[in-house]
Amino acid sequence: MDVTLAPGAAVGRHTHPGIESTYVMEGELELPVQGQPTRVVKAGEAFQVPPQTPHAGGKAQTVKARLMINYIVEKGKPLASPA
């Protein structure tokens, strides 16, 4: 997926039934993942979220954030569920 977050936008806490691999193409965002300290990821950096791990979509800082996200999930399961 090619996802753009507007400055200050955030995605609610959720999980995925498989691994999420994300590359930050533009901007930066906060990355709160359960069991890990919240960190800021910037353009050129990548991160992964393990299956069934609650996390939020982050909060774009002062500029938009553009992400390339790849999900590997079991066919027939929902891509995301609220956590």
Task: Summarize the structure in words.
The protein is an all-beta fold and 83 residues long. The chain has a single domain, classed as Jelly Rolls, CATH 2.60.120.10. Helices cover 0% and strands 43% of the residues. The chain has strands at residues 2-5, 14-15, 19-26, 28-31, 39-42, 46-49, 65-72, 81-82. It has a four-stranded antiparallel sheet with strand order 1-7-3-6, with no helix packed on it. A two-stranded antiparallel ribbon has the order 2-8. Strand 4 (28-31) and strand 5 form a beta hairpin.
Labels describing this entry:
83 residues; mainly beta; Jelly Rolls; four-stranded antiparallel beta sheet; two-stranded antiparallel sheet; 8 strands; 0% helix
Number of domains: 1
State Rg: 12 Å
Query: What fraction of residues sit in β-strands?
Result: 35-45%
Under CATH at level 1, the class stands as: Mainly Beta
Q: What's the multimeric state?
A: single chain
How does the helix and strand content classify structurally? mainly beta
Mean pLDDT equals 93
Helix content: under 10%
Which regions have little confidence, pLDDT < 50, spanning 5+ residues? none
Quick one: how many beta strands?
A: 8
How many helices? The count is: 0
- Report the CATH superfamily: Jelly Rolls
CATH topology grouping = Jelly Rolls
Strands in their spatial order, largest beta sheet: 1-7-3-6
Shape: globular
Taking the alpha carbons of the first and last residues, their distance comes to 21 Å
Architecture, CATH level 2? Answer: Sandwich
Biggest β-sheet: count, sense, barrel?
4 strands, antiparallel
* Helix and strand element order: EEEEEEEE
